[in-house]
Amino acid sequence: MTHWLFLAVAIIAEVVGTSFLKQADGFTRFWPSVTVVASYVIAFYFLSLTLKTLPVGLAYAVWAGAGVALIALVGLIFFGQVLDWPALVGIALIVSGVVVINLFSSVI
User: Fold this and answer.
1) Domain membership of residue 73 as a residue range
2) How far apart are the first and last CA of the chain?
3) What interhelical angle do 56-79 and 2-24 show, nearest 10?
4) Number of domains making up the chain
5) What b-and-e string marks burial along 57-87, b requiring 16 or more CB atoms within 10 Å of the CB?
6) pLDDT, tens digit (0-9, with 9 covering 90-100), for 48-93
């Protein structure tokens, strides 16, 4: 069960890092750039711990699906980026795929 906690930390760290990319302004602003790099180091460290017990394809599918949905939410809340219906449907399909993998896949 610890692998899911590690994966959650990795996803959150990746979302934080990606969120700060905009403020880093092409890595020209110091603190936002430090936040991006530190977040990605944390994200990849915890992803590597996850891969000790979960298959890479499954872990990456969950990472990517959750990351897409969370970044879209961060974009909406913090940057005022509104998604149209096709984008929302696409994100819902990605999240649905992650749910299907977690509920029905035998690789877990």
Assistant:
1) 2-104
2) 11
3) 40
4) 1
5) ebbebbbebbbbbbbbebbeeeeeeeeeeee
6) 999 999 999 889 989 999 999 999 999 999 999 999 999 999 999 9
